Amino acid sequence: MNQPLIVTATRKAGTRVSMAVGAVVVLVLLALPLLSLLPDGHALQVSAYTLTLVGKVLCYAIVALALDLVWGYAGLLSLGHGLFFALGGYAMGMYLMRQAAGDGLPGFMTFLSWSELPWYWAGTQHFAWALCLVVLAPGLLALVFGFFAFRSRIKGVYFSIMTQALTFAGMLLFFRNETGFGGNNGFTSFRTIVGFDIAAQGTRAVLFLLTVGLLLGSLFLCWRLTQSKFGRLLTAVRDAENRLMFCGYDPRGFKLLVWVLSAVLCGLAGALYVPQVGIINPSEMSPTNSIEAAVWVALGGRGTLIGPLLGAGLVNGMKSWFTVAFPEFWLFFLGALFILVTLYLPKGVVGLVKKRSQP
Amino acid sequence: MLRLLLTFLLLLPLATQASEGEFFLSAKPAEQARLLETWAAQPDAARLPLLDNLRQGRIAENDTRKLRLNNRLRGLIDNALASHQLLSDNSAIRLASAQQLQKSAQPAQMAFLDRRFAAEPDAAVHAALGLALANLQLGASDPAVRLAAVRLLGETGDPLARTRLEALLQPNAETDAAVRTAAETSLAQVQRKLLVGELLGQAFSGLSLGSILLLAALGLAITFGLLGVINMAHGEMLMLGAYSTYMVQVLLQRYAPGAIEFYPLIALPVAFAVSAGVGMALERTVIRHLYGRPLETLLATWGISLILIQAVRLLFGAQNVEVSNPAWLSGGIQVLPNLVLPYNRLVIIGFALAVVLLTWLLLNRTRLGLNVRAVTQNRNMAACCGVSTGRVDMLAFGLGSGIAGLGGVALSQVGNVGPDLGQSYIIDSFLVVVLGGVGQLAGSLWAAFGLGIANKLLEPQIGAVLGKILILALIILFIQKRPQGLFALKGRVID
């Protein structure tokens, strides 16, 4: 016990403080939708705008967590997570479009003078099938891509580039009108979800609560995973894949599992994002969006579970402030953030805090 | 006496011309039309100035009397002029006039066209004349003449011949069965020739795209091979090169308009210097600190690219700036009736190959190249042998960025110059590097041209987007077979 007592005390207090902060944040998040239900003009009322904004950031936080799972733990930097996010969003959007269109065709299809739905729209009027699609579309794509990528042991920057090209190709595909997903404009002007008015305060509050629930659920899942033997294997894949193979493990299955899981989490986040924000279009798949998600994780701290959530919140909060206050300088700021974080904060904000508390 | 005679002989054409002009001026419109038709059927080189003047609505240069021309007369004048210009010594003028005659020739000109067709030495003009002649003969009442015309059309490979033959094959257009069958075979022939032209055209645009990809990917391959980092800001080096070209153009327009013709040549060293300078500065200030952490480098260079794009947007505006081709780069060579090879693309293909050659010489025949190769193969050993690896890194990064700057000059001659210019090429050039293998010039060369041609050949068949997706899928499958790319360095290191 060479350390001064005070250091030990702050360290113990540190975990306790962070636990307390976490609990407060969760409580606030749970309270927000309830406060939004208060009547107009009430001092504590939370506006629909704020609720949507926070809900959006929470969806991004799930993406960041999913990305952290593959990048921070398994060392696979994906620059294509926007694709999985958008696929989940599109699957949910298909259901919402069918709800809005009733028995007829969605508006953009009548505009293209199509007479019937393409085959892949079959069954999307059922909410349950839409939920299956939310999981299946990103999951299967990740499975096929991951299978081939990991089989030929693509890793490092090669893997990043291939995922970037994948999301770029997806964006080009969805931009086409003939693909049957509304082309440029994507899906918008939704009306109802499982019979409830999508713009109603109550629906918004429920969607928000679901997002918080998904976030906490995925946090718990990731926590259990990373604490288990599986998590240690992932770290081994990240740090010394060849040595792991010499030890007799086949890393492909582990990588594939965590990769698909991460994609599915992104898809679920996308599915919750679309009804809250009210629009999904192919620009969600642009490589820019996916790589921005990487900076959320990097800023918060890779290889930690809280870091990505913190990063997503910080960057998106700054983004919504900057784009109003100094729209021309947001890209300068974001660019500088990329550079400074990689140069000076390799472990992110969480690493910084940890360093402070344990000198 | 002799002198007098000679003077008279010299003046004779002038005199006839003047009298013909007077006659034309005094004639009634119907008479004028008949006159023009006769002239078109029997051209005389001496009548050329008169026709030129008629076209401008006068009978002589200093004559103030106005001619009244209707559209029919104007058309007839054009036709007669074209007919006369066929006698010109300049093959370009003859070609233009033959193309005019394809549209406007009258049956009375057939005999004259037949004679010129037989005597024409230039292949392109010969083909164009043949088409004009066949066009005329299709209207003949004698089926034998029509048959000959249809056969003649089959021998040309012109899109115009295809439309004529297709019109002929419409129901009720042609009654003679023999001519119909001949027309069908001719149409098939023409289409085959056109297909060849189209395929060659696609292959050429593939080569052109490939040469641009090559210029974009070459520097990327060098820096990736050497430092093991992917420079996401590489596309912005292309952009900086293109904007340097724009700046050179603007400055020359203002201060040295005489040299504006050669501004792309002046822009080459400027663009190289600008891009290389920016590249070296980035290497020293940011990338140097991130060696051994390739994924972080990727993110940091992405940040750099965001800043560069936004800076250019603030400086030059978000719209595209205008970079124009100098005269010697506009136009092209007409190889087949439906295949024109533009000079700017031809020059760029040559330029890209020259850059590859220079880079190869630089890497294989100079001290710097030796050092670069040594550091690429084994950094620690090279450092032990006294190679200053930091300096080599900086210079190689500058070289890679500079090559991208040269690529930007080339791009400015074929595409739009805007702040997002680099973004549209960067993913494709990454794929070139992935496909070609690391640090291999030959690999980059084959991969760039292969990708370019595959892109352009697939484009008309299944569309640009599906073509891109198919190519991506093929690359992923290809990597299954050869994870290190087409040309891999053999190594014995495993981490």
TrEMBL record, chain A:
- Top-rank taxon of the source lineage equals Bacteria
Compartment(s) where it occurs, according to its Swiss-Prot or TrEMBL record = Cell inner membrane
The principal localisation class reads: membrane
Q: Which UniProt keywords apply?
A: Cell membrane, Membrane, Transmembrane, Transmembrane helix
Which positions, given as ranges, span the membrane? 20-39, 46-67, 73-92, 127-150, 157-175, 205-223, 253-274, 294-317, 329-346
Q: How does it sit in the membrane?
A: Multi-pass membrane protein
Q: Which first-to-last residue range defines the signal peptide?
A: none
Q: Does the keyword Transmembrane apply?
A: yes
> Transmembrane: present as a keyword of the record?
yes
| Pfam families in alphabetical order | BPD_transp_2
Tell me the GO molecular function terms: branched-chain amino acid transmembrane transporter activity
Record PANTHER family: HIGH-AFFINITY BRANCHED-CHAIN AMINO ACID TRANSPORT SYSTEM PERMEASE, SLR1201 PROTEIN
Q: What is this protein called?
A: Amino acid/amide ABC transporter membrane protein 2, HAAT family
What is this organism's lineage? Bacteria, Pseudomonadati, Pseudomonadota, Gammaproteobacteria, Pseudomonadales
TrEMBL record, chain B:
Q: Which GO terms describe its molecular function?
A: transmembrane transporter activity
Q: Which InterPro entries match?
A: ABC_transp_permease, ABC_UrtB_bac, ARM-like, ARM-type_fold, BCAA_transport_permease
Signal peptide from the UniProt entry: 1-18
* Keyword line: Amino-acid transport, Cell membrane, Membrane, Signal, Transmembrane, Transmembrane helix, Transport
Indicate where this protein resides in the cell. Answer: Cell inner membrane
One cellular-component annotation, GO: plasma membrane
- Annotated membrane topology: Multi-pass membrane protein
**Mind telling me which Gene3D superfamilies this protein's record contains?**
Leucine-rich Repeat Variant
Q: Which residues cross the membrane?
A: 209-230, 237-256, 262-282, 294-316, 346-363, 430-449, 461-479
Could you tell me which Pfam families the record lists for this protein?
A: BPD_transp_2
**What is the superkingdom listed in this entry's lineage?**
Bacteria
* Claim: Transport is one of the keywords in the record: yes
What is any one GO biological process for this UniProt entry? amino acid transport
Q: Identify the CDD domains for this entry.
A: TM_PBP1_LivH_like
Classify the main location: membrane
Q: Which family does it belong to?
A: Belongs to the binding-protein-dependent transport system permease family. LivHM subfamily.
Q: What is this protein called?
A: Amino acid/amide ABC transporter membrane protein 1, HAAT family
